[in-house]
């Protein structure tokens, strides 16, 4: 090595003179330096054994050395060792950095998917916005109002059924699962709507009703002709039919009353219908039917739909042996049993195998979920089920099913108190399988609107509850401005009028038809309160329900604590419910205090949480005047329907306290490190 | 160590290396992620968008050839800097250097972060990945690039080959699948191309916008000016490389775009966050997760080359006396170590303080000005020094086309969104003179700096390069 260098030195030496450098550092500027310190004779002796080169001996290191000079000195330990150390330090830090990256990825908790990250907004499309003056809302109308929805900080839009259907009720009786009903627009409108929704960064889920079709559906028409594979698409059974009187195969009843069997004159058999006779049930024991349904699912997923709400899934299967269901009141004469509630529906709902079918749907949807950020959501509607049965839709630890069954228990409450609200919350949180994600609805097309059901004092509290509970908040259109049911009873439409009351046109402004339609009439009358309860008015009013809704939604979106923090239910009485939201690593704790009682109440928060300061700041209040002010924690007075979100910084979080452990819940446990700005799961 | 090895930037890179270099330079993450710009501005008209891609290829060919003239006439590393100095004088050249000092750090940092993002995002399927691991990985990647770069150009050859094979492999695969599907002729696949021009026809302004979107995808064709000093027989190699690589890239781009539209609808392409991922998910569903990693890996070589290029500029600037001597020193692998170190360090700072990248982004505007100036320089030199030895002369209309495009690139942002920050960019640009006047014009010398230079030379074992044969011959001439 040294000899090599030496040889090269002598070869290159002659060229040295040719080196030009125009820089401001000139070769001849040899900096003054401590003599001897750089030029150790020892190294010379080692490196340059040849005495024939006396020129080198005189050389000192200088700025702009050529290699002959540099190599003479740079081999010395004082340069070589730091050089090696620096090099290896770099190498080690590269490995450390890669290691750190892997470590952070490894300890990162599963991140919240889009359906967990923000609220869902359910739209009944016929009543949201009419764009073509025919008095019926449509898809283009929804597209027009996307800015409004964005301003609510909603993440997911959920559009109820808009399939081609006879005009009776679009939720049921679908004539073509792959077609948009003309009153809502065309498939092109739908595609545009999907594109517009995705452009705004929102997601779209739609209803899907696999249980039955309309009796005008081509499948049914073929089935009653016994043509080919369609013969067994529906549930047919022999029954006797004489003089217009049918003797059904068994005592099963339809949801709307009377026998669920109907005699078909063409096929001369009875078909089974869980709902109306115009809605024959598909035969899900037929694999061909399951395939058809999967194809429909794929059809919509390919259109870009981000998920489904599967409706009425508990009705998918019925007992094969057609056993009679048991009467609730055994002494009742069997012939007089005509109401759905008079039987126990052990053989027509939630049959063995029903969950397998849904899991199969999930598998189909998973094939379209692989692209990052394109997970397809599955929700199931399971109304009027016991909590245990509802929880079955969450799937089993190793078998994925619905992402969540919709939690409509709040929509069934007819009166409020601290206790009833507490019941609903705890029954869901305690029964929910570990690691699953809760959700909360305050309204829906099938439920009476909140204001009509409970009174308009509670609209703000319920919205506050919705956004501060852990999980996905789901809002039915109009609930954000406190719309109420319409009170008119003589409809043109003859069918099940009670469910139409909560489907009145959205109240946009105080022009005619509340801004819903520029047509002469609307399919349902607009609520008479639209002059005061509408989007335009509430947008200008700082104390309106809409403004609070937006504030709450924004808070939910911004605060990690509300998004994925712990939820500790601390106290309940007939009036108030008190709970906190907290997250390890963030010392900000939200204390939520809500009064659901019939009257005002006084609450001593010091008794609930020890070590509170006497004053706490109000982050948000249902009473907009008190936002940002402070309350006395010894005596918080809450009006009827008043709710507060208090902000407090606590060092020891409540879920660490042994006494509260079983009253605290978290879905995806995570801790936050503020110094590193990451979430981690090892805590 | 070979005793005959000279320490200098040697002419040892040939045709194959050059083609690889050009391909890597031009194909970044764009074609995998966002070929949607062209499609969007051509009103989702598939036929028009394909035509625009082809047109962009021709346009970028013109400007590549202009820079080829520079690189061939002045076959030095960092030739475009040298060229500006020659044409417009020392002070303008210094400002050019001053901007590239910052922009190259910004480019390097944002590219490293992009690489890290593609590498990490697959682990966060439904939300955006946190910043910390991104920064860690970006730093690690950048430092590896630094180490590789200080091992000399030759060492990088295998990496370049691998990377080119990877890039062309993915794109080739996408293209072939598209061709296969077209040949098989399933109705849903062929339909969109049969009726390619049926959709709405875009307006002129949209077409212009689409052309610029496509033009960016081809940018980087002038990169030979960075390494002209290291190419064997540059006057032959450069044109040959350009005429090989650009048609190849054009073909692959067109085929890949055709393949995208055979599988996806224009709307799906536009709404997709990463088209290649969506495409793979449709064609071979099991492999979609690989695509982001492949993009990440292919970006690595872009990073390597970017560091290489910006080090060359610092190197020649130092040789020309506009930067301290130590930037033109080479280590035993003939790599301008200090220049690489400076670039990596500035890049690292920009990665750590991510906000800096946003500031630097404003400076990209200045790059278009320099491109325009270089092109003007070609014209100027043709008239001033008609007898200069030019083995390759670009066809004059090409020069005018290239000038028109870069003029548009300067003017369009100014006209479209006249913002204050263009004035700040200008002020920043001129602030370079604060350094130029004392240090270069008046040649103020700092004693401590020379001590530092001396010490660093010994510490890093770097020396000023040996005189090359070329320089020797120049002296003789």
UniProtKB/TrEMBL annotation, chain A:
Instruction: Name where it's found.
Output: Apical cell membrane
Q: Which GO terms describe its molecular function?
A: protein heterodimerization activity
Q: Where is the composition biased (Polar residues)?
A: 11-25
Annotated region described as Disordered, given as residue ranges: 1-50
**Where do the Glycosyl hydrolase family 13 catalytic domain residues begin and end?**
122-512
The gene designation is Slc3a1
What is one GO biological process annotated to this record?
Answer: aspartate transmembrane transport
Natural source organism = Mesocricetus auratus (Golden hamster)
Sorted alphabetically, which keywords does the UniProt record give?
A: Amino-acid transport, Cell membrane, Disulfide bond, Glycoprotein, Membrane, Phosphoprotein, Signal-anchor, Transmembrane, Transmembrane helix, Transport
Basic and acidic residues composition bias: residue spans: 1-10
Transmembrane regions listed in the UniProt entry? 85-107
Secretion signal, residue range per the UniProt entry? none
Query: Per its UniProt record, what Pfam families does this chain match?
Result: Alpha-amylase
Name of the protein described by the UniProt record: Amino acid transporter heavy chain SLC3A1
Q: Which Gene3D superfamilies does the UniProt record give?
A: Glycosidases, Golgi alpha-mannosidase II, Oligo-1,6-glucosidase, Domain 2
Q: In terms of domain of life, where is this protein from? A: Eukaryota
Entry GO terms, CC: brush border membrane
Under the subunit heading, UniProt states: Disulfide-linked heterodimer composed of the catalytic light subunit SLC7A9 and the heavy subunit SLC3A1. The heterodimer is the minimal functional unit. Assembles in non-covalently linked heterotetramers (dimers of heterodimers) and higher order oligomers; the oligomerization is mediated by SLC3A1 likely to prevent degradation in the endoplasmic reticulum and facilitate heteromer trafficking to the plasma membrane. Disulfide-linked heterodimer composed of the catalytic light subunit SLC7A13 and the heavy subunit SLC3A1.
Does Ribonucleoprotein appear among the keywords?
no
From TrEMBL, chain B:
Q: What is its main location?
A: membrane
Give the residue spans that cross the bilayer. Answer: 15-34, 46-74, 94-115, 165-183, 241-263, 283-305, 336-357, 363-383, 395-415, 421-442
Keyword Protein biosynthesis attached: no
Would you tell me the Gene Ontology cellular component terms? Answer: apical plasma membrane
Q: Where in the cell is it found?
A: Apical cell membrane
Q: According to its UniProt record, what is one Pfam family this protein matches?
A: AA_permease_2
Q: How does it sit in the membrane?
A: Multi-pass membrane protein
Q: Name one GO molecular function term.
A: L-amino acid transmembrane transporter activity
Sorted alphabetically, the keyword list is: Amino-acid transport, Cell membrane, Disulfide bond, Membrane, Transmembrane, Transmembrane helix, Transport
Among PANTHER family, the record links this protein to:
AMINO ACID TRANSPORTER, SOLUTE CARRIER FAMILY 7 MEMBER 13
So what family is this one in?
Belongs to the amino acid-polyamine-organocation (APC) superfamily.
Q: What name does UniProt use for this protein?
A: Solute carrier family 7 member 13
What's the source species for this entry? Mesocricetus auratus
């Amino acid at each position: 090595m040294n000899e090599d260098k030496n040889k090269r030195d002598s070869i290159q030496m002659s060229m040295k003179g040719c080196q030009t450098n125009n820089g401001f550092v000139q070769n001849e500027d040899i900096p003054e330096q401590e003599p001897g310190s750089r030029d150790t004779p020892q190294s010379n002796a080692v490196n340059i054994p040849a005495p024939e080169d006396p020129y080198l001996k005189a050389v000192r290191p200088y700025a702009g050395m050529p290699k002959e000079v540099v190599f003479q000195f740079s081999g010395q330990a004082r340069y070589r060792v730091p050089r090696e150390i620096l090099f290896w330090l770099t190498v080690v830090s590269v490995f450390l950095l890669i290691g750190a990256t892997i470590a952070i990825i490894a300890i990162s908790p599963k991140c919240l998917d889009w359906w967990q990250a923000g609220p869902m907004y359910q739209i009944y499309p016929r009543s949201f916005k009419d764009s073509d003056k025919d008095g019926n809302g449509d898809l283009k109308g929804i597209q027009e109002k996307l800015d409004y929805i964005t301003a609510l900080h909603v993440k997911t839009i959920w559009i109820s059924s808009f399939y081609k259907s006879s005009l009776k009720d679009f939720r049921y009786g679908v004539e073509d699962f792959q077609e948009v009903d003309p009153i809502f627009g065309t498939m092109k409108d739908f595609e545009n709507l999907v594109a517009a929704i995705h452009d705004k960064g929102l997601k779209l889920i739609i209803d899907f009703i696999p249980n039955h079709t309309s009796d005008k559906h081509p499948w049914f028409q073929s089935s009653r002709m016994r043509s080919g594979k369609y013969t067994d698409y529906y549930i047919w059974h022999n029954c006797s039919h004489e003089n217009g009187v049918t003797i059904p195969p068994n005592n099963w009843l339809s949801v709307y009353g009377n026998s669920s069997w109907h005699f078909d004159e063409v096929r001369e058999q009875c078909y089974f219908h869980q709902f109306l006779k115009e809605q024959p049930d598909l035969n899900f024991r037929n694999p061909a039917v399951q395939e058809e349904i999967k194809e429909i699912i794929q059809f919509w997923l390919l259109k870009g739909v981000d998920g489904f709400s599967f409706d009425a899934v508990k009705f998918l299967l019925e007992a094969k042996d057609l056993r009679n269901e048991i009467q609730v009141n055994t002494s009742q004469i069997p012939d007089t049993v005509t109401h759905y509630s008079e039987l126990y529906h052990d053989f027509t709902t939630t049959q063995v195998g029903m969950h397998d079918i849904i899991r199969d749907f999930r598998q189909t949807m998973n094939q379209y979920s692989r692209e990052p950020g394109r997970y397809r959501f599955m929700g199931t509607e399971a109304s009027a089920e016991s909590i245990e049965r509802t929880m079955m839709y969450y799937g089993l630890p190793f078998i994925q099913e619905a992402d969540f069954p919709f939690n409509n228990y709040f929509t069934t409450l007819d009166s409020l108190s601290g206790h009833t609200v507490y019941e609903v919350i705890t029954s869901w949180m305690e029964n929910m399988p570990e690691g699953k994600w809760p959700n909360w609805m305050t309204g829906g097309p099938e439920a009476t609107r909140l204001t009509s059901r409970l009174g308009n004092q509670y609209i703000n509290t319920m919205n506050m509850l919705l956004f501060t509970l852990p999980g996905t908040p789901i809002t039915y259109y109009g609930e954000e401005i406190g719309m109420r049911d319409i009170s008119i009873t003589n409809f043109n439409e003859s069918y099940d009028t009670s469910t139409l009351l909560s489907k009145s046109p959205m109240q946009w402004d105080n022009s005619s038809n509340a801004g819903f339609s520029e047509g002469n009439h609307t399919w349902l009358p607009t609520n008479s309160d639209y002059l005061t309860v509408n989007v335009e008015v509430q947008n200008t009013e700082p104390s309106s329900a809409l403004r609070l809704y937006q504030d709450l939604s924004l808070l939910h979106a911004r605060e990690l604590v509300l998004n994925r923090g712990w939820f500790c239910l601390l106290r309940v009485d007939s009036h108030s419910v008190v709970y906190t939201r907290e997250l390890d690593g963030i010392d900000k704790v939200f204390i939520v205090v809500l009064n659901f009682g019939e009257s005002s109440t006084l609450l001593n928060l010091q008794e609930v949480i020890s070590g509170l300061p006497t004053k706490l700041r109000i982050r948000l209040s249902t009473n907009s005047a008190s936002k940002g002010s402070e309350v006395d924690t010894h005596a918080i007075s809450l009006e009827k329907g008043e709710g507060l979100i208090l902000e407090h910084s606590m060092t020891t979080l409540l879920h660490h306290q042994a006494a509260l452990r079983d009253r605290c819940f978290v879905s995806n446990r995570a801790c936050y490190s503020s110094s590193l700005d990451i979430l981690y799961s090892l805590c | 160590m070979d005793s005959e090895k000279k320490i200098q930037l040697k002419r040892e890179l040939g045709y194959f290396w050059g083609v690889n270099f050009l391909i890597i330079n031009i194909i970044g993450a764009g074609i995998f992620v966002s070929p949607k710009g062209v499609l969007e501005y051509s009103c989702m008209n598939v036929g028009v968008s394909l035509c625009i891609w082809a047109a962009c290829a021709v346009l970028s060919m013109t400007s590549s050839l202009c820079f080829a003239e520079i690189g061939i006439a002045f076959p030095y590393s960092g030739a475009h800097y040298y060229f500006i100095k020659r044409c417009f004088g020392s002070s303008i050249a210094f400002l050019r250097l001053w901007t590239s000092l910052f922009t190259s750090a910004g480019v390097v940092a944002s590219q490293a972060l992009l690489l890290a993002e593609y590498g990490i995002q697959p682990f966060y399927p439904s939300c955006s990945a946190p910043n910390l691991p991104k920064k860690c990985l970006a730093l690690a990647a950048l430092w590896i690039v630094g180490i590789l770069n200080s091992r000399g150009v030759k060492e990088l050859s295998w990496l370049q080959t691998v990377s080119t094979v990877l890039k062309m492999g993915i794109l080739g695969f996408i293209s072939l699948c598209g061709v296969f599907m077209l040949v098989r002729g399933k109705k849903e696949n062929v339909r969109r191309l049969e009726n390619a021009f049926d959709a709405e026809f875009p307006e002129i302004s949209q077409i212009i916008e689409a052309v610029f979107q496509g033009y960016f995808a081809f940018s980087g064709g002038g990169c030979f000016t960075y390494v002209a000093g290291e190419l064997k027989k540059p006057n032959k190699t450069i044109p040959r490389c350009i005429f090989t690589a650009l048609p190849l890239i054009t073909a692959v781009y067109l085929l890949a775009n055709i393949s995208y539209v055979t599988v996806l609808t224009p709307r799906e392409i536009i709404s997709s966050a990463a088209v290649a991922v969506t495409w793979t998910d449709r064609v071979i569903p099991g492999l979609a997760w690989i695509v982001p990693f492949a993009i990440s890996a292919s970006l690595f070589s872009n990073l390597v080359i970017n560091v290489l290029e910006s080090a060359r500029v610092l190197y020649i600037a130092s040789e020309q006396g506009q930067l301290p001597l130590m930037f033109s020193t080479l280590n035993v692998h003939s790599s301008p170590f200090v220049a690489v170190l400076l670039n990596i360090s500035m890049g690292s700072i920009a990665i750590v303080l991510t906000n800096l990248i946003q500031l630097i982004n404003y400076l990209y505007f200045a790059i278009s000005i320099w491109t325009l100036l270089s092109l003007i320089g070609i014209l100027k030199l043709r008239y001033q020094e008609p007898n200069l030895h030019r083995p390759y002369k670009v066809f004059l209309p090409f020069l005018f086309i290239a000038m028109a495009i870069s003029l548009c690139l300067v003017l369009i942002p100014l006209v479209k969104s006249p913002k204050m920050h263009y004035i700040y960019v200008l002020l920043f640009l001129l602030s370079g003179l604060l350094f130029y006047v004392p240090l270069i014009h008046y040649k103020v010398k700092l004693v401590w700096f020379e001590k530092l230079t001396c010490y660093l030379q010994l510490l890093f074992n770097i020396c000023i390069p040996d005189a090359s044969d070329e320089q020797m011959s120049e002296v003789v001439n």
